[in-house]
Amino acid sequence: MKQNSKGPIWRKLVVLVIVAALIKLFSFFSGLVETVYSTHIYPGIAITLRVLTGWLPFSLGDVLYALAVIWLTIRLVVLIKILIQKKGNWHGFFYGVGKAVVCVLWIYIIFNVFWGLNYDRYGISYQLKLKQDKYSTGELKHITALLLDKVNYSRRALGDSSFVYPPYHKMFLEAEEAYDSAVIKYPFLQYKSHSIKKSLYSKMDNYFGFLGYYNPFTGEAQVNTEVPAFVIPYTACHETAHQLGYGSESEANFVGYLSAKASKEMIFHYSAYFDLFSYANSELFVRDSAAARSNYRALDTLVKRDYHIYRAFLLAHKNPVEPIISLFYGEYLKANKQPKGIETYNEVVAWLIAYEKKYGEI
């Protein structure tokens, strides 16, 4: 009787391994992922999740993450107790391991069906017919100069140092409106059933280095609101891009830029160009430090002030844990077709260069 009660676990394990293998096999066909999953299947899943969770005034995903950590801790303690209290009972131990593997397989399957397959799509290059080529230092200098003008102009348009940003919940609404404006030019950016929420772990996020994140199990976009206000608009647009099925961080950055640029609110223009100039000028610093320093000196006084504020903020939250979190997250990105890990965010520069070449603007 005891043996038979454990039998279904192993049968379930075999079935789940087969399903996970089929999902992995499907992921190798990016054309099918783009035209079948990302274009037709995923939007329905995403909208359904946002309808189910979007009405909640808090992040359900954050609550589930906390419960998951508690559950995993309990399961780990139980497995250890089995080994200690029942010495030699390896059968019971491996049964517990089998249950854990079943759980992991379920998470893998749900993650990919609900969102993860988007890592394997063609994405924005296919939709806008852009080619992300290697770029020369001259091209990098050109795009950085354009971004310099944009960030200076947008900050001056906000007024003097007394400018006050609206509360985060209003900026979330404005991010939704930005996508409503962007969809006129880019129909594939249609964003229905909005769900952008404050991260319940915002203060902790600061020490882990997270500005925001997307929960694929609940469809919610979480934004860290305990950061300098000028960072929030572009972050909200970036996380919304993940909701729309852009898995790559560089593509989410680029789609976030397209929506922020379409916004009627200048704070979104400034927030996006502030971040994008940082990426481009940092890349330029590696190639031509003198040119990068010259760009920084050319920044408007108020932009420089914001850079000082942001650097002070980062320095105040610097800690030994953040590099470890970044390392693990970088490995996660590499495992999902982003070989440069954390540096993937910087690849938005290549998209900007390709876009400017095709459309003559940024």
Describe the structure.
Helices cover 70% and strands 3% of the residues. Strand 2 and strand 3 form a beta hairpin. It folds into 2 domains: 119 residues, no CATH class; 234 residues, no CATH class. It is globular and about 70 Å long. It has 362 residues and is mainly alpha-helical.
Strand order of the largest sheet: 1-3-2
Instruction: Report on the biggest sheet.
Output: 3 strands, mixed
Distance between the termini: 69 Å
Coarse morphology: globular
The total of helices stands at 15
Give the helix proportion (percent range). 55-70%
Number of strands: 3
Low-confidence stretches: 1-5
Count of separate structural domains: 2
Q: Structural class of the helices, strands and pairings?
A: mainly alpha
Order of helices and strands: HHHHHHHEHEEHHHHHHH
Mean pLDDT: 91
The fraction of residues in strands falls at under 5%
Radius of gyration: 23 Å
What's the layout of helices and strands?
Layout: H1 2-27, H2 30-53, H3 60-85, H4 90-114, H5 124-128, H6 137-157, H7 168-185, E1 196-198, H8 202-208, E2 212-215, E3 220-223, H9 232-243, H10 249-262, H11 266-287, H12 289-297, H13 301-316, H14 321-335, H15 348-359
Parallel strand pairs: 1-3
Antiparallel strand pairs: 2-3
